[in-house]
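Chapter summary example: a protein plus pyridoxal-5'-phosphate.
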Amino acid sequence: MSRPAIAHIRLDAFRHNYRVAKQCYGGKALAVIKANAYGHGAVHCAKSIRNEADGFAVACLEEALQLREAGITEPILLLEGFFEAVELAEIVANDLWVVIHAQWQVKILLEAKLKHALQIWLKMDSGMHRAGLSPNEYTQTYTRLKAHKNVKNIVLMTHFANADNLASTHTMQQVKVFQDTIQDLNNVANIDTSLANSAAILAWPQTKRMTHIERHWSRPGIMLYGANPIIQAVTDDLLQPVMQLNSRIISISKIKKGDSIGYGSIFTAERDTTVGVVACGYADGYPRSAITGTPVAVDGNMTRLIGRVSMDMLSVDLTDLPATGIGSQVELWGNHVCANVVAASAGTIAYELFCNVKRAHFQYYDAANI
Ligand SMILES: *Cc1c(COP(=O)(O)O)cnc(C)c1O
């Protein structure tokens, strides 16, 4: 028998969530499948929406080539563009789109000898202060690039720092900086733009272009995997979880009130306790920082993590679940246990939980392709 830690991936849920993203915001949507589709498997996810996706976004050339090699022919955007001039030949040969976020990239692009002109996404730093050209160099750079033979077409792009915070005024300030900067561009109404990530798609409809929404490209990521990024929106009917991380009970023991368990003996039983050991640990991607009390479902019943998560195992409280036994099904997150809740009890976000899943076997499902 093989180790029972399994990540079940529901591609029909992924497809559903992509449709929700498009319906919510309107316009076109690039499915963000960087970092191996946030740990879900980029090729499987891409194939599941290949007939309807407007395009895909990944972090770098290697991730894009993996998709091209798997036969994905839709547009693919490199969210960090290129890192060195030598990548440009392959970028052109594979018909990839690139984000230009820094002046050193502009310089390389203008000096390169390319077989074909490139489609680029010119990123503005409208207030996140991570990557992007500053507003005062943006239009000038746009005009220079636009006139150059290496550039086919330019999408105007920016990224939000606080769209998951409904109380923050930062998102609309960023929109204003973006709009004020681009407003004098020639024929701006007919230039494609891209602002919204998942949080903006779900919570900030006012960030969208009221006219020419068909010229807007949203960039949904985390929502495609079924995790709602909006603070407090822990459960929702809109999105469907895509990953269910499961394993099984491999050992059961009884400890007395006052006994402690696991490394560091950080959990001491307040009553006589039945302890179940689950074959899943931080080497599978379950966060070691998850605290006692983090929800876990055993045979569909809610219980809690107790003690410290170790590399290959973790312990759960089975005292109130007498029907469970060796081999009982455990869900670490998925349909019963919200990944956002596990993430919060581990001091992180669902993005990181998903990206960290490894060693567990991956199994893919797709209900009839409607
Ligand atoms: C990762 C990423 C996204 C997707 O963000 P989510 O919060 O996962 O929706 C969108 N745009 C850019 C530039 C990104 O890097």
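Key point: The mean pLDDT is 95.
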